[in-house]
Write a structure and sequence with these properties.
- The protein is an alpha/beta fold.
- It contains nine helices and twelve strands.
- The strands form three sheets. A five-stranded parallel sheet has the order 2-1-10-11-12, with helices on both faces.
Amino acid sequence: MKVKTILVSQPAPTVENSPYFEIQEKYKVSIDFRSFIHVEGVTPKEVRHQKIDLKDFSAVILTSRNAVDHYFRLAEEMRFEVPIEMKYFCLSEAIAFYLQRYIVYRKRKIYVGLRTVSDLSKVIKKHKDETFLLPTSDKLKPTTPIELDKMKIKWSRAILYKTVVSDLSDLTDVFYDILVFFSPSGIDSLYKNFPDFKQNKTRIAVYGSTTKIAAEKVGLKCDITVPTPEVPSMTKALENYIIEANKR
């Protein structure tokens, strides 16, 4: 079946030269964007219930921009002045640069990994005497605590924000040729908003192994799965699929 409509379960790109817009123009398909999930911050009271005191930590492991935002938000709300000596261990360069919203970048101790917590292992072990805080959402990859425990460091998790299912009641249907998901929470949102959803001829595109597992668990057939060594991005995978499907 040809592809004419796609729904991406994320906000619309904010850059004009997004590959999604290029696909839309080049292949004359309609692409809609809608967040199936959103993030809500927890309160200082909820942090205290976790027995977390921000002043007890000399280093922070940052795995996302949301972690950065909510760490500094709660620091302000809890009247904790983040010391200049604080050490930041960032999962990626993009997260490290994002820190500039809150700190004077060149005056801080910032360490950067490639993509995963294990990538940070060597540099974290060099600072094993620090006390590490891991700000997260209520959803956390099960491998992350395992990797940190392997490093034999003193660390604590703090749930500073939560992933919440968005209200999609204004969508009259989800009858698209392709639905694109990037997390298990997106799959959860689909069925919480549309409990009677049937895949029928809709193609499902998923990013990441955990998203694929969540999709298959509820009986969805995944037609597009990324990343792969040959196709690392969702947009490239969509383009390849459209070329193949629409030439028939």
